[in-house]
Amino acid sequence: MSGFIKISLRGLSDQIDSPSIFPSALLFSDNDEFKTHLENRSKEIQSVINDLSGINKSTPPETVELQGKLSQLLSTEKTHLVQLASLQEEKEILEDRLEKASMRYMVAEKKLDRAKSATVAKMEQQALLGASKTPENSGVKREESVPNGVESNEGVAELEESHHKALAVTQRQKEQLELLESENAKLMKQVTELQLQSTKRTDEDYAGTELFKQLKSQHEDVIRRVNNLEAVNKELQEEAVKLRAERSAYQVQVETDVSVAVGEKESLLATADKDVNRIRGNRDELLAELSMRKSVQEQERESIKKTQELAAAREERIVALESENQRLKIEPGTSSPSVLDIDGLDADGLRARFSELDRKYKMLNDELSSLQSAFPRYTRLANQKVAEFTALEEKVLRLTAEKAKADQKFFAAMKSKETRDAEVRTLRLQNTKSADVVSQLKESEAASRSLIANLEKQLSESKDAIVTLTNASRAAQQEATEGKLLVDGLKNQVTELTKLVSDKDSQFASSASANRQRELEVESLKATLADTKKSLEGWKSKSLGNQSSEFEMLRSLAICTVCRKNFKDTVIKTCGHVLCKDCVDERITSRSRKCPNCNRSFGAQDYMKVVL
């Protein structure tokens, strides 16, 4: 039994590891890369479509190459999408198979561990040897005598067991042969039908295929898009003609408005120039008047200062004259005594004479001081007047020289003015002539614009005709390329499908043969199992009365103390207690990660499998 489990597990592991059943290119690491590859391809195709839609002129050979590349990219994208859908379906199917195989593998592994455990083997040996222990422990020596029919009974049992196996195997082989004959007949009928269908293919058969339906729907979508694009193209052409007419009318209107605005701005500019010249003349006059008034005010200020100084000198002179007048009023009544008279005067007379002389002396001193203060002022004013007169004379001489120069400049300016007036007259004549030329040029420009508008209309019509022809040629080329690509794709798909069918047939044949062999093994194992069950029941009936307390104690030690169903096969590393695997897994999944014996916590990796 353990050998059969090992063989089945090995076959499952080989099937899981084989790249034909589980392609890793789409299941795990390369799935994102494949998606990015498809996204990059779609971006490139969109960029090429945008570049082609932006081109409205004649189609060079580069555009034809780009169209071919675009059709190729579209076909490759479609094939990639079909492959992606089929591979996703295969992926889902293989995931289901993987889950089922993993479940079977886990069950088989548990059974194998159970079969390999030493405790189960010991218990089975104890159960088998329980009957033989009682006569050994009785203490009485007896001769072991074998009855006469034992060996023959054992041989008969073995023969019956082999006979049952052979009968089960032959019965299963008959059933398998019948199934194979029925399947062979069905397959022969299908082969004949397929041969007839392959030799005589009709349009209905092609029309019933999914590829034809997909191509038909894609063709209808392309025709619908082409019709929509033609309608949109016509509308855009009409709008373009309207917009060109509006543009020409708007250009004429803008030019007239600009010419009128330019004339108005020129008239306003001329009036502004006149106003500026008038304002400048007024400014010059006002500045000259201001400078004259400033000079007059300066002269008035100087004259006021001088009059004030003269007034101050006059007051001092008046004071001197008043003192002189007083002195002269006193002197006529008195006469200066002679020296002899002074000698004859007494002390009182001398005192009176001294006081009188002292008063006169003081008056003379006062008059002299006022004269001293007035004299420098008069001299300074006199010097200033002399300097002013000399400056005025020099200024008069300079102004006369400047007047002569200004007269010369005036005469030269008058001459240049006459020449400028003549130039202005000639320029005005030239301006009138240039205005006539400009009007003629505007008329010719309007005529040329009308011609250009007509030529643009003709050009747009010719462009539209070219665009329609190019679109028709593109559609034809695209249909041809799509047909070629579809034929190539169908051929490739047919070859791939034939390869897949052959691979599947070989796989199916190998799996069917392996299945038949396993069914034979299963039937033989069922027969052996039935015989072993019978012998086990016999041994159990024999050993029911021979179980001892020691066997119960050993059994209680080997069974899990929590569930009382499974054997102990898992130890907790943190505390050392031994439980069954189911109880440990249940505690880890329910997050009550504590030992039931000592309540010591443990982690998800703090346990290991043991063999009792």
UniProtKB/TrEMBL annotation:
Enzyme Commission code(s) on record: 2.3.2.27
An example Pfam family from this entry, by short name, is BRE1
Region Disordered, residue ranges: 131-150
Domain of life the protein comes from:
Eukaryota
Any GO CC annotation of this UniProt entry = HULC complex
Extract the coiled-coil ranges from the record: 77-118, 170-409
Q: Which family does it belong to?
A: Belongs to the BRE1 family.
Catalyzes what?
S-ubiquitinyl-[E2 ubiquitin-conjugating enzyme]-L-cysteine + [acceptor protein]-L-lysine = [E2 ubiquitin-conjugating enzyme]-L-cysteine + N(6)-ubiquitinyl-[acceptor protein]-L-lysine
Indicate where this protein resides in the cell: Nucleus
In which organism is this protein found? Answer: Phaeomoniella chlamydospora (Phaeoacremonium chlamydosporum)
**Which pathway, metabolic or otherwise, does it act in?**
Protein modification; protein ubiquitination
GO BP annotations of the record are: chromatin organization; protein ubiquitination
Q: Where is the RING-type domain?
A: 560-599
- Purpose of the protein: E3 ubiquitin-protein ligase that mediates monoubiquitination of histone H2B to form H2BK123ub1. H2BK123ub1 gives a specific tag for epigenetic transcriptional activation and is also a prerequisite for H3K4me and H3K79me formation.
By what name is this protein known? E3 ubiquitin protein ligase
What Gene Ontology molecular-function terms does this entry list?
A: ubiquitin protein ligase activity; zinc ion binding
Give the UniProt keywords, A-Z.
Chromatin regulator, Coiled coil, Metal-binding, Nucleus, Transferase, Ubl conjugation pathway, Zinc, Zinc-finger
